[in-house]
Amino acid sequence: xxxxxxxxxxxxxxxxxxxxxxxxxxxxxxxxxxxxxxxxxxxxxxxxxxxxxxxxxxxxxxxxxxxxxxxxxxxxxxxxxxxxxxxxxxxxxxxxxxxxxxxxxxxxxxxxxxxxxxxxxxxxxxxxxxxxxxxxxxxxxxxxxxxxxxxxxxxxxxxxxxxxxxxxxxxxxxxxxxxxxxxxxxxxxxxxxxxxxxxxxxxxxxxxxxxxxxxxxxxxxxxxxxxxxxxxxxxxxxxxxxxxxxxxxxxxxxxxxxxxxxxxxxxxxxxxxxxxxxxxxxxxxxxxxxxxxxxxxxxxxxxxxxxxxxxxxxxxxxxxxxxxxxxxxxxxxxxxxxxxxxxxxxxxxxxxxxxxxxxxxxxxxxxxxxxxxxxxxxxxxxxxxxxxxxxxxxx
Length: 395
What we know:
CATH class of the largest domain: Mainly Alpha
Order of helices and strands: HHHHHEEHHHHEHHHHHHEHH
CATH architecture of the largest domain: Orthogonal Bundle
Shape: elongated
Strand order of the largest sheet: 1-2
CATH superfamily of the largest domain: Cytochrome c-like domain
Number of domains: 4
CATH topology of the largest domain: Cytochrome Bc1 Complex, Chain D, domain 2
């Protein structure tokens, strides 16, 4: 190389130009050409995949109408619909998005930026009533949400709040998103039953933290006092639990928080840290702590308990199981699942109310036809099922 050429090669501008071209080519191959060449891997749809936005006659269906509402209301401004193969997104949202999923999406709804959660795997994550409550007032289900209200999608009257056709179509669309991966997401969102034991020692610090987290995640449905009368209550079936009517050991609260209650608006909070779950468990436990003594009083009447067992075996055992332990087959078949009575106990008045009225939104039917004496006996027997020795109250 001549001295003149060597001098040119050593000039800063020349070095920067060559480096810039090199980085451009590298980024083009890595971020443009590479994904394009690998796109074929996700292009082949399942055989049963057809246009989800039209019916058999080629007319737009509820999902298609809901997509139009989604676009019209600019939901895509804050919610993306694309699970990327980076940063543990698959763990957070579900299986990575495939190209064939979007073949009928014109225009696409990938979104602009992710302010709210990604919705590509929304199908089955939450119940319809949760979505209606969330659209009506997002703070009713997510107290810290910054999402605006969409009250014009509802009609209000003396009979209550009803979703319009647009709202119903929008929820149908949300419940469609990611439906081809619904079972994969379900296993991730609704953990199988867990056994919890050995709650940590209660502390004032955990109590304060638990109250803070309860206000952040739970008051929209359960209300500030835990009485089940949160802002979302007009929409929820089954209704949110009235935590003031039951004694829940901290281990049972932890289990519910970790598993959620599939078939209801109660989601799993398994993404929270174990320490935070125990803090919420302590706070919820204290809400109904004083219920224990009143709830267990009927169990002291041995004669009433014996009669109650006969009523239970005739009317309740098939769903709630022997001695109040729900069979696994019933837990999987019924959503929400029947309650275990070994790990909780209720106020007598609340049990009588459920016997008389059932639980709308669940498979718990009304047994108002039972004689009053049988109802009293059943209340006593259900209280006797609580494992008081296992859950000894500590000062």
